[in-house]
Amino acid sequence: MYGIPQDVKMSVLVGKEVAQLCIGLYQVQVNFDDETSISIEGRFNHLTNVAMEFQSNQLASTAKTMVSLLGTKIVAVEREDADTMLFSFSNGESLRLFDSNQDCESFQITGRDIEIIV
Protein backbone atom coordinates (compact mmCIF):
# COMPACT_ATOMS: atom_id res chain seq x y z
CA MET A 1 0.00 0.00 0.00
CA TYR A 2 2.68 2.51 1.04
CA GLY A 3 5.82 0.84 -0.29
CA ILE A 4 8.92 0.06 1.75
CA PRO A 5 10.91 3.14 2.80
CA GLN A 6 14.49 3.30 1.52
CA ASP A 7 15.91 4.82 4.68
CA VAL A 8 14.59 2.33 7.27
CA LYS A 9 17.30 0.67 9.40
CA MET A 10 16.75 -3.06 9.01
CA SER A 11 19.83 -3.99 11.04
CA VAL A 12 17.82 -3.76 14.29
CA LEU A 13 16.04 -6.97 13.20
CA VAL A 14 19.20 -9.07 12.80
CA GLY A 15 19.67 -11.54 15.66
CA LYS A 16 16.01 -11.59 16.71
CA GLU A 17 14.71 -15.09 17.48
CA VAL A 18 11.29 -16.33 16.35
CA ALA A 19 9.44 -17.16 19.57
CA GLN A 20 5.85 -17.54 18.38
CA LEU A 21 3.73 -17.88 15.24
CA CYS A 22 0.06 -16.89 15.34
CA ILE A 23 -2.08 -17.99 12.40
CA GLY A 24 -5.50 -16.48 11.75
CA LEU A 25 -7.86 -16.49 8.80
CA TYR A 26 -6.53 -13.22 7.39
CA GLN A 27 -3.28 -12.58 9.25
CA VAL A 28 -0.08 -14.36 10.27
CA GLN A 29 1.98 -12.90 13.11
CA VAL A 30 5.63 -13.70 13.67
CA ASN A 31 6.57 -12.70 17.22
CA PHE A 32 10.19 -12.45 18.28
CA ASP A 33 11.99 -12.84 21.61
CA ASP A 34 11.49 -9.18 22.46
CA GLU A 35 8.64 -6.80 21.66
CA THR A 36 9.19 -7.06 17.91
CA SER A 37 6.62 -8.62 15.57
CA ILE A 38 5.78 -8.96 11.91
CA SER A 39 2.09 -9.03 10.96
CA ILE A 40 1.37 -10.33 7.47
CA GLU A 41 -1.93 -9.72 5.70
CA GLY A 42 -0.70 -9.75 2.11
CA ARG A 43 1.19 -12.03 -0.24
CA PHE A 44 4.38 -13.71 0.95
CA ASN A 45 6.79 -16.50 0.10
CA HIS A 46 8.23 -18.86 2.68
CA LEU A 47 11.23 -20.43 1.00
CA THR A 48 12.28 -23.82 2.33
CA ASN A 49 13.94 -26.60 0.31
CA VAL A 50 11.16 -26.12 -2.21
CA ALA A 51 9.92 -22.57 -2.88
CA MET A 52 6.28 -22.14 -1.87
CA GLU A 53 4.12 -19.08 -2.32
CA PHE A 54 1.15 -18.31 -0.09
CA GLN A 55 -1.64 -15.84 -0.78
CA SER A 56 -3.64 -14.01 1.89
CA ASN A 57 -6.78 -16.06 1.16
CA GLN A 58 -4.81 -19.21 2.04
CA LEU A 59 -3.06 -17.96 5.19
CA ALA A 60 -4.81 -20.18 7.72
CA SER A 61 -4.20 -23.44 5.85
CA THR A 62 -0.77 -22.83 4.35
CA ALA A 63 1.19 -20.79 6.90
CA LYS A 64 1.67 -23.98 8.91
CA THR A 65 4.95 -24.58 7.06
CA MET A 66 6.35 -21.56 8.89
CA VAL A 67 6.58 -23.65 12.07
CA SER A 68 10.11 -24.50 10.91
CA LEU A 69 11.07 -20.88 11.68
CA LEU A 70 10.38 -21.29 15.42
CA GLY A 71 13.62 -20.92 17.37
CA THR A 72 15.57 -19.54 14.39
CA LYS A 73 17.15 -16.10 14.22
CA ILE A 74 17.11 -13.47 11.53
CA VAL A 75 20.59 -13.37 9.97
CA ALA A 76 19.91 -10.81 7.24
CA VAL A 77 17.19 -8.40 6.09
CA GLU A 78 17.14 -6.87 2.64
CA ARG A 79 14.89 -4.35 0.94
CA GLU A 80 14.89 -5.88 -2.53
CA ASP A 81 12.86 -3.06 -4.07
CA ALA A 82 10.07 -0.64 -3.16
CA ASP A 83 7.59 -3.53 -2.83
CA THR A 84 9.62 -6.47 -1.49
CA MET A 85 11.51 -7.37 1.71
CA LEU A 86 13.58 -10.51 2.23
CA PHE A 87 14.30 -12.00 5.66
CA SER A 88 16.94 -14.75 5.90
CA PHE A 89 16.94 -17.09 8.90
CA SER A 90 19.60 -19.15 10.67
CA ASN A 91 18.17 -22.44 9.37
CA GLY A 92 18.73 -21.38 5.74
CA GLU A 93 15.09 -20.57 5.08
CA SER A 94 13.77 -17.18 4.07
CA LEU A 95 10.60 -15.15 4.14
CA ARG A 96 9.81 -12.68 1.37
CA LEU A 97 7.06 -10.11 2.01
CA PHE A 98 5.36 -8.16 -0.77
CA ASP A 99 3.47 -4.88 -0.82
CA SER A 100 0.71 -6.70 -2.70
CA ASN A 101 -2.39 -4.61 -2.10
CA GLN A 102 -2.92 -1.05 -3.27
CA ASP A 103 -5.93 -0.53 -0.98
CA CYS A 104 -4.94 -2.24 2.29
CA GLU A 105 -1.85 -2.83 4.38
CA SER A 106 0.19 -5.87 3.35
CA PHE A 107 2.44 -6.18 6.41
CA GLN A 108 3.70 -4.31 9.45
CA ILE A 109 6.94 -4.63 11.37
CA THR A 110 6.78 -3.16 14.85
CA GLY A 111 9.07 -3.09 17.85
CA ARG A 112 10.95 -0.81 20.23
CA ASP A 113 13.35 0.43 17.56
CA ILE A 114 11.33 -0.01 14.37
CA GLU A 115 7.94 0.65 12.83
CA ILE A 116 7.23 -0.10 9.19
CA ILE A 117 3.73 -0.17 7.75
CA VAL A 118 3.47 -1.35 4.16
Strand order across the biggest sheet? Answer: 1-2-3-9-10
Query: What's the main sheet like?
Result: 5 strands, antiparallel
Q: Based on helices, strands and strand pairing, what is the structural class?
A: mainly beta
How many β-strand runs?
A: 10
Low-confidence stretches: none
Cα-atom radius of gyration: 13 Å
Which band does the percent of strand residues land in? 35-45%
Helical content band? under 10%
Compute the number of helices: 1
Order of helices and strands: EEEEEHEEEEE
- Morphology call: globular
Structural domains: how many: 1
The separation of the N and C termini measures 6 Å
Mean pLDDT: 87
Report on the architecture of this protein.
The chain has 118 residues and is mainly beta. The chain has one domain. The chain has one helix at residues 59-62; strands at residues 18-23, 28-32, 37-40, 44-47, 51-54, 74-81, 84-89, 94-98, 107-110, 115-117. A hairpin with a 2-residue loop joins strand 6 (74-81) and strand 7 (84-89). The longest helix is centred in the middle third of the chain and has 4 residues, at 59-62. The model has no long low-confidence stretch (mean pLDDT 87).
